[in-house]
Design goal:
Number of strands: 15
Pathway: Amino-acid biosynthesis; L-phenylalanine biosynthesis; phenylpyruvate from prephenate: step 1/1
Catalytic activity: prephenate + H(+) = 3-phenylpyruvate + CO2 + H2O
Mean pLDDT: 93
Helix content: 25-40%
GO molecular function, one term: prephenate dehydratase activity
Largest sheet: 10 strands, mixed
Radius of gyration: 21 Å
Distance between the termini: 19 Å
Protein name: Prephenate dehydratase
Bound molecules: 3-phenylpyruvic acid
Structural class: alpha/beta
Pfam families: ACT, PDT
Oligomer: single chain
Length: 289
């Protein structure tokens, strides 16, 4: 098992029973999982060597990228992706059992992604109730469990309901059925987590900064590097470089190992056309049920 080799623990966005905790438990079922209150703190813990791995949410099928994670990986830390965990996400409306019959709620707390994923339900059912952003779904659930005297609610998963003794007042309130989140398992060293049960397809994530001269057709040039080599892309996204309006870098997921001949050629050619490439490494996908 992977955790036999994990000496120093695994950071995740806590507290217990967050979606990130469930993702971390998929790849490290018996690992020393250490909760941190924010995503940057999880990433810093692994960058500074206080833990060996960090598990962080990267992208949600309904809401898109978690920009905090993407930007931190690009601007702040040189870390590698050792695995991806793909988890189905079910959002529920959680209340303290003492408030299960409340007519209305003072406020609804959750992680911004969870609030956004449940937007339609909240709009049609609790239009006049303030929505309050919280550091994670499980932190919101924990808080609701500690304040029975306040008629407040949290949005989170079934495990939070169980762990913190909450009642599920409304089940499956996320707006679209296909609600999945991708999580990255990060490390300071470039390697693949290889434990039983991964998907066959290998992936490589690259962060590509185009040449500074802003010449026309540069995105086309970048894409052709992959196209003529028949390297399939499963994602391309632009993020601000934060150097000026209109300056972007591209996050590209390629369905190939970075050590493959075609990939090495692609990386060389990207450098030759003036791109700066930060590779996050190659990894397998682990599906969570
Ligand atoms: O808040 C959590 O539980 C997290 O782990 C972050 C998150 C929030 C919503 C969907 C997926 C991950």
């Amino acid at each position: 098992m992977a955790e036999k080799h994990v000496k120093n623990g695994i950071s995740y966005l806590g507290p217990e029973a967050s979606f990130t905790h469930l993702a971390a438990a998929r790849v490290f079922p018996e690992g020393a999982l250490v909760p941190f209150p924010t995503i940057p703190e999880c990433i810093e813990a692994v960058a500074e060597g206080r833990v060996e791995y960090a598990v962080v949410p990267l992208e949600n099928a309904l809401e898109g990228s978690v920009s905090l994670t993407v930007d931190y990986l690009f601007h702040e830390a040189q870390l590698y992706v050792t695995a991806e965990v793909l988890s189905p996400i079910g959002q529920h409306f959680l209340v303290h059992p003492e408030n299960a019959d409340a007519e209305s709620f003072e406020a609804i707390y959750s992680h911004p992604q969870a609030l956004a994923q449940s937007h339609k339900f909240l709009f049609y059912t609790y239009r006049n109730t303030p929505l309050e952003q919280y550091s994670s779904t499980s932190a919101a659930a924990k808080m609701v469990s500690e304040l029975p005297e306040r008629p407040i609610a949290a949005i989170g998963n079934e495990f939070s309901a169980e762990k913190y003794g909450l009642t599920i007042l409304h089940r499956d309130i996320h707006d679209f059925h296909f609600n999945h989140t991708r999580f990255f398992v990060l490390s300071k060293t470039d390697h693949k987590l290889e434990i039983p049960g991964h998907e066959d397809q290998i992936k490589t994530t690259l962060m590509i900064s185009p040449p500074k001269d802003d010449r026309s057709g540069v995105l086309h040039q970048i894409l052709s590097v992959f196209a003529w080599r028949q390297l399939n892309l499963s994602k391309i996204e632009s993020r601000p470089l934060k150097t000026g309006l209109g300056d972007y870098f591209f996050i590209v997921d390629v369905l190939e190992d970075e050590s493959a001949t075609m990939m090495r050629g692609a990386l060389e050619e990207l450098a030759a056309i003036g791109c700066e490439v930060k590779t996050l490494g190659s990894y397998y996908v682990y599906k969570n049920s």
